[in-house]
Every structure is written in C-alpha cells, then in structure tokens.
Design goal:
By secondary structure, the chain is mostly helical. The protein is built from 5 helices and no strands. The radius of gyration is 11 Å and the shape is globular. The two termini are 18 Å apart. InterPro entries: Cro/C1-type_HTH, Lambda_DNA-bd_dom_sf, TransReg_Diox_bact_type.
Length: 74
C-alpha cells in the first residue's frame, strides 16, 4: 500500500514539474524503467533514492511525506 501511495505521489510531483520519466531518471542517475516501476508501486525505493528524488523535486523529505499522507495536495 505504501508503495502505491509513494508511486502516485512521485508521479504527481514529477508531472507537476513538467518532466518526463526519462528526463527525471537521467537527472537522478536512475533508469526510466525503474522510475516507472516506482510510480506503479512495483518497487520500493531505498532511502538514498528517496533523497535523490526529493532533491530533484526541490522539496524536503518532510514535504514529500506530507504529500504522501495527503496532508498536502501535490
């Protein structure tokens, strides 16, 4: 369940930034298929990956978690 919420949140925030999966993946040193798997809830990210994602989205980990918990709309 958390993987699905994480994935939906990641996708919404990435799309809000106007970045493709390919460009987003390249900017954080990951493969596009891995980003796709994260967004579909098929993979669980490591803490290091979450950190990279937050840096690229220009938000703190706390802000990302607030989005994840629906305390903020992405």
């Amino acid at each position: 369940m958390i993987d699905t919420k994480f994935g939906r949140t990641l996708k919404k925030l990435r799309m809000k930034k106007g970045v493709s999966q390919e460009d987003f993946a390249l900017s954080i040193g990951l493969h596009r298929t891995y980003i796709s798997q994260l967004e579909r809830g098929l993979k669980s990210p490591s803490l290091r990956t979450i950190e990279k994602i937050c840096v690229e989205l220009n938000i703190s980990l706390v802000e990302f978690m607030q989005h994840l918990e629906h305390k903020k709309d992405p």
